[in-house]
Amino acid sequence: MKNNIFIDITDGSTPKMLQIVISKSNKPDNLSFGSSIIAEGKLVLSPNGKIELHTNNVTIIGTCDVMDGYPFVPRKYYDMDYVRQFLHLRPRTRRFSSLLRLRDMTTASIENYLRSKNFINVHTPILTSNDCEGAGELFLVKPYCENLLKSMKRENISEEESYFNTKAFLTVSGQLHLETIAR
Length: 183
Prior knowledge:
Layout lengths: L3 E6 L8 E6 L12 E10 L5 E12 L17 H4 L10 H23 L10 E2 L11 E2 L4 H7 L15 E3 L4 H5 L4
Parallel strand pairs: 2-4
Antiparallel strand pairs: 1-2, 3-4, 5-7, 6-7
InterPro entries: Aa-tRNA-synt_II, aa-tRNA-synth_II/BPL/LPL, NA-bd_OB-fold, NA-bd_OB_tRNA
Keywords: Aminoacyl-tRNA synthetase, ATP-binding, Ligase, Nucleotide-binding, Protein biosynthesis
GO molecular function: asparagine-tRNA ligase activity; ATP binding; nucleic acid binding
């Protein structure tokens, strides 16, 4: 065992880690916390009853340099205010990946229950050209890039209509679309 190193990995599908056992001589030089890897080997039941992956080959497909601005380091607790600053990386923390799995299971359970009662799930549009409620409280959607809008500008079409060929708004309600399928 003195010639081996142990690497804990996770793919995010479970809160549990899988331990990889690899000889020190086969460890990639630039392996670090948060790296994306490919590991091939044999699953073995360890003496403590857990499953390990014994391998001679670990390939790094993406590095993660903590010293280059990656905000999380191993075995450290971060309060929620800190984690919220990095929205795109939150799922890499155990707490948020657990919340995502819980939300997924809850949503799937509700959908399965409703499906068993012959309900159907309707995905109403997020963008629309309709004001179904007539309230006039619509939010106009257009590309952030003004240069793109200017390059798409056509005669007799306003800038707001140039991207979607009509004015597009965030949907205020799914009512109009749901009414068409209601019986």
